[in-house]
TrEMBL record:
Gene that specifies this protein: ctaD
Taxonomic superkingdom: Bacteria
Gene Ontology molecular function: cytochrome-c oxidase activity; heme binding; metal ion binding
Protein name: Cytochrome c oxidase subunit 1
Function: Cytochrome c oxidase is the component of the respiratory chain that catalyzes the reduction of oxygen to water. Subunits 1-3 form the functional core of the enzyme complex. CO I is the catalytic subunit of the enzyme. Electrons originating in cytochrome c are transferred via the copper A center of subunit 2 and heme A of subunit 1 to the bimetallic center formed by heme A3 and copper B.
Residue ranges crossing the lipid bilayer per the database entry: 45-65, 85-106, 127-145, 165-190, 210-234, 254-278, 290-311, 323-341, 362-384, 396-419, 431-453, 473-497
Top class in the EC scheme: translocase
Organism the protein comes from: Natronogracilivirga saccharolytica
SUPFAM superfamilies: Cytochrome c oxidase subunit I-like
């Protein structure tokens, strides 16, 4: 126990119980209690289970595509089925997996805990956002059953207005899913503004929360544009209103502007939360204070702002004016600046740090390598002269996967392994965690590095057949995808094993300084027994753990007393 006698405020250690009886996992029993729960932690796990299912479905579809591409001619599926599968792979992975993966799953679970709150600001709205997600997913699954879609996940006009596939039901699925994303963003912003514990100023907020804050801004501002776009597309098909039909005075390129005005900021909905996870991992496992806290925090907001201004780089070959292309090219280069700031600061944080190569840190290092390749190749195709040659080739496929999977998914896996002991109260097998990280890293590069080569040599993307010269590279890529799938199977096995046989986790196995690790593992139903008072930042690794004082306020203490105590030397 520590005291501040200047104003009689007593600060006590958290009453952490290593294996508490009243955790969120056993607060209520039965499936119904999970389906109608208002507990942010359970809702986070519901999201996590849902996105894991759709990741499995999208992954199986990807393996079918790669199997077909083993040979230049038709082998296991025909051309129409191939078009449907790559459309569904893209739509499922983008809208049902990767966009909600980090904010809705890990964000829902840990945001309230990291600010010392009992829950999000609007628990019922949080539950509603999950069920809206489920309804949207049902519409997407119905679309698969009723005829699928073969337009590509971008649903470009005029083909999407003319094909006889289930475009309306699939676009309505995306329309519904957008509401889930908007409600989650609103909930997070209000929670961060209104429910932070006493003493938790913006300068003491974990960088993961800054990334969720920036992401929520994008969700609220950009998602309505997508909703309007897919609604106009559905009205075009049903009523023939002519918004995108040139014979009726419309413009099919207008659809591209609408779609990418949302979809490029959506890239940052996917990757900015991943940046936040990496900041947590690198600081914790380097045992160092994060380098350039405000630079990293504000760069997340800068990415959120600049991300709205670069959509035109997807349309360099669509006939837009030369001046527009030059402006969008410059902005594409410019948006790389705040991202580069993050990478340099992460490397500076590791410099002379006491690096502990646990499984989460290995994923953080893999992220730095893979995402840097994705970022640098993005700068290349931001150049007009290069983009004209590489547009719609396998180079774009490789770049996109290095950013999305090499970035977002790798960071998600790092965050999942980092917070797994807190979520479940169990430790996974560290040996198999490291082995699996190595398998995923090597096989990912086997899968997508050859695609850079194919694209630079002119191999178009989305092609069912190809010339013989690319067969060797395609086969190497397909073998890599099989090994990558095996890596995820191994991960699923040892994580499932840990739920039943894994050693009990202590409250803070990684010796982290952020607030969620001050709760029990798994957390109590309302996270903390008392309201925390924040005395130090989440990255004060230069202080010994015994001096790392995060306390709990007595119930009879006022907010003013707590703030005064925090400012007292």
């Amino acid at each position: 126990m520590a005291e501040r006698t200047a104003n009689t405020l007593k600060i006590r250690e958290f009453p952490v119980e290593e294996n508490p009886k009243h955790t969120y996992l056993n607060a209520e029993k039965g499936i119904l209690s999970w389906l109608i729960t208002l507990d942010h932690k359970r809702i986070g796990l519901l999201y996590l289970g849902s996105i894991a299912f759709f990741f499995f479905v999208g992954g199986v579809l990807a393996l079918l595509l790669r199997t077909e591409l083993l040979t230049p001619a038709e082998s296991i599926i025909d051309a129409d089925t191939y078009n449907q599968i790559f459309t569904l792979h893209g739509a499922i992975m983008i809208f049902l997996f990767i966009i909600p993966s980090i904010p809705a799953a890990l964000g829902n679970f840990f945001l309230p805990m990291m600010i010392g709150a009992k829950d999000v600001a609007f628990p019922r709205l949080n539950l509603a956002s999950y069920w809206i997600y489920v309804i949207g997913a049902v519409f997407a699954l119905y679309s698969i059953i009723s005829g699928a879609v073969d337009t590509g996940w971008t649903f470009y006009t005029p083909y999407s207005t003319q094909t006889d596939m289930a475009v309306v039901s699939m676009t309505m699925a995306i329309f519904i899913l957008g509401f889930s994303s908007i409600l989650t963003g609103i909930n997070f912003i209000v929670t961060l503004h209104k429910l932070r514990s006493p003493g938790l100023s913006w300068s003491k907020m974990p960088l993961f929360l800054w990334s969720l804050y920036a992401t929520a801004i994008i969700q609220i501002l950009a998602t309505p544009v997508l909703a309007i776009t897919v609604l106009l597309l559905a009205m075009e098909r049903i009523f023939g209103i002519g918004i995108f039909d040139p014979t009726m005075g419309g413009d099919p390129v207008l659809y591209q502007h609408f779609f990418w005005f949302y979809s490029h900021p959506a890239v940052y909905i996917m990757i900015v939360p991943a940046f936040g996870i990496i900041s947590e991992l690198i600081s914790t496992f380097s045992r160092k204070t994060i380098f350039g806290y405000w630079a990293i925090a504000l760069s997340s907001l800068a990415i959120a702002f600049i991300g709205f201004l670069v959509w035109g780089h997807h349309m360099f070959v669509s006939g837009q004016s030369e001046l527009s292309s030059v402006v969008f090219s410059f902005l594409t280069f410019f948006v790389g600046v705040p991202t580069g700031i993050k990478i340099f600061n992460w490397v500076a944080t590791m410099y002379k740090g006491s690096i502990d190569l646990k499984t989460p840190m290995l994923y953080a290092l893999a992220f730095l390598f893979l995402f840097t390749i994705g970022g640098l190749t993005g700068i290349m195709i931001g150049a007009l002269s290069v983009n004209v040659h590489l547009h719609d080739t396998y180079y774009i496929v490789a770049h996109f996967h290095y950013v999305m999977m090499g970035g977002t998914v790798i960071a998600l896996l790092g965050g999942l392994h980092y917070w797994w002991p807190k979520m479940t109260g169990r430790m996974y097998n560290e040996f198999w965690g490291k082995i699996t990280c190595g398998i995923i890293f090597v096989s990912f590069n086997m899968t997508f590095l050859p695609q850079f080569i194919m694209g630079s040599q002119g191999m178009p993307r989305r092609y069912f057949n190809y010339v013989d010269q690319f067969q060797g590279l395609h086969q190497f890529s397909t073998i890599g995808s099989y090994i990558l799938g095996l890596g995820f199977v191994i991960m699923a096995v040892y994580l499932a094993w840990s739920l039943f046989k894994g050693p009990r986790a202590t409250s803070n196995p990684w010796k982290s300084r952020s607030l969620e690790w001050m709760a029990s593992s798994p957390p109590a139903h309302h996270n903390f027994e008392y309201t925390p008072v924040i005395l130090h930042g989440p990255y004060d690794h230069h202080k010994p753990m015994r001096e790392f004082r995060m306390g709990v306020a007595r119930e009879d203490e006022t907010h003013e007393e707590q703030v005064t105590a925090e400012k007292t030397p």
